[in-house]
Amino acid sequence: MPELPEVETTRRGLELFLVGQTVRTVVVRESRLRWPIPSALLRELPGQAIQSVTRRGKYLLLQAAAGSVILHLGMSGSLRIVAETIAPEKFDHVDIVFNSGDCLRLRDPRRFGALLWTADPAQHKLLVHLGPEPLGDNFNGDYLYRKSRARTRAIKDFLMDSRIIAGIGNIYANESLFLAGIDPRRAAGKISRARYENLSQAVRTILEQAIQAGGTTLRDFRGSDGRPGYFQQTLAVYGRRDLPCRNCGRPIRSQTLGSRSTFFCRYCQS
DNA sequence: CTCCGATCCTGATGGC
DNA sequence: TGCCATCAGGATCGGA
After folding, report:
1. Which one of the listed residues A12, A185, A222, A260 is annotated catalytic?
2. Which of A14, A76, A79, A191 has a C-alpha 20 to 30 A away from that of A97?
3. Strand C bases with any atom < 7 A from protein Cβ
């Protein structure tokens, strides 16, 4: 599934290809995604040139003069650049077609993704409440420490709250907490400043490593999109229930936390 | 503030 | 072998 690192890698690839291209038309074969594709997008986007491709959390933004396309890949979304003459396959729901004859094709079997239009991304409902970027300058141990005071919810739940930090999914919350040696069930408000410093570093490290891994696999994202668990070999705890901890060898535990599967080592995380 | 369940959807899985 | 039931999973939202 596309996580922040994969979205970032996709962004880098799209940026090279899309900036400067002008949209000729938008072809919608299935409008029912997470939200219906707004008619404003079909009305406003044709004729617009893509000025930049940016990312906010797991959202991709294609910015044009009149507004921005907001893209989210959900669980199963993928994007490819193909010639418009290539026949779409099942689940290829939308083409954004450019004057060049190429198009940006969105495939999304589960349709948890989104394709939206906004005149002003800074004001958009989905983006305006997002916390800082985990790889940005405003994210550090101090920030987490301040935000978490008097909070009783589990640290993992806290980390996955996009209003606190943008774009940390289940996998990276699990992995970051393992690297930082913090028990995912621990109350956010009872973690020391020093441990939050560790945690913020761990989040950065994990995401940067995954971007590297994603970069390798996604280099040819324009071609096919087959990519089986690019970060899989590196995962320390996620999906490793009952397998030996890579640190101490004891079995990885799993339990549901905040209605999400959670993996951790009882001995290496406290 | 916090937790819970529902929601959107399909591929993967596990049981029979 | 095949069919059916279950469920994961990102993010939002309403309700307790």
Report:
1. A260
2. A76
3. 8-13
Does the pTM surpass 0.85? The reply is yes
Told to judge if A88 belongs to the known catalytic residues of this protein, a careful annotator would answer: no
pLDDT 10s digits, A31-79? 989 888 999 999 999 999 999 999 999 999 999 999 999 999 988 888 9
Residue nearest to nucleotide C10 (CA to C1'): A74
DSSP 8-state symbol, A236:
S
Cα distances (Å, whole numbers) of residue A179 to A132, A200, A233, A238:
21, 10, 15, 12
Q: What is the DSSP string of A6-67?
A: HHHHHHHHHHHHHTT-BEEEEEES--BSSSBPPHHHHHHSTTPBP-EEEEETTEEEEE-SS-
Q: Which of A3, A6, A8, A44 is catalytic?
A: A3
A75 touches strand C (CB under 7 A): yes
Write the pLDDT tens digit of every residue in A106-139: 999 888 899 999 999 888 889 988 999 999 999 9
Long-range contacts of A262-265 (CB under 8 A, 24+ apart): A262/A156, A262/A174, A262/A184, A262/A185, A263/A174, A263/A178, A263/A237, A263/A238, A263/A239, A264/A174, A264/A177, A264/A178, A264/A183, A264/A184, A264/A237, A265/A178, A265/A237
The Å distance, CA of A128 to C1' of C8, is 28
Catalytic residue among A58, A147, A156, A195, which? Answer: A58
